[in-house]
Amino acid sequence: MVTQVTRGIKITVSTSFEGTFFKNYKMHYAFGYWITIKNQGKDAVQLLSRHWDIIDSLNDMEIVDGEGVVGKKPVIKPGESYTYNSGCLLASPIGAMKGHFNMINFTTTKKFHVIVPTFKLNAPFAIN
Predict the structure, then answer these.
(1) Which of 29, 36, 84, 87 is packed most tightly, with the most Cβ within 10 A?
(2) What gap in Å lies between CA 70 and CA 68, rounded to an integer?
(3) What are the tens digits of pLDDT across the range 43-102?
(4) Where exactly are the structural domains of the chain?
(5) Is 8 exposed, middle or buried (0-12, 13-18, 19+ CB in 10 A)?
(6) C-alpha torsion sign, points 14, 16, 104, 39
(7) CATH classification of 2-123, choosing from 2.60.40.1470, 3.40.50.10860, 3.40.190.10, 3.40.50.10420?
(8) Are 124 and 16 in contact (CB under 8 A)?
């Protein structure tokens, strides 16, 4: 599990290996991740969009930008948390993700980035 706080917003990430499968004649490694966003500040905030850099050990990088997370743009009041889970596919059994959430503070109406720290994606059989 990794954790980071940016401007009063605490991000906690945990991961799991979900298995392997063939798609388009190629082996893929599936990973799940759970992200908890806790508002430790004094103002309500809303998550507007996300940016991900997804890297595997073959040096393939995929950049993903999109609205909200899992189809939602949650409003997180002071002291509250929002947790969601999602996943990704890699071409190798080892990789990592990092990125940020674009958010808005409802009191100041200012937009800001919340860093999602780098988290590792490792298939158990690939770790020595």
Answers:
(1) 29
(2) 7
(3) 999 999 999 999 999 888 999 999 999 999 999 999 999 999 999 999 999 999 999 999
(4) 2-123
(5) middle
(6) negative
(7) 2.60.40.1470
(8) no
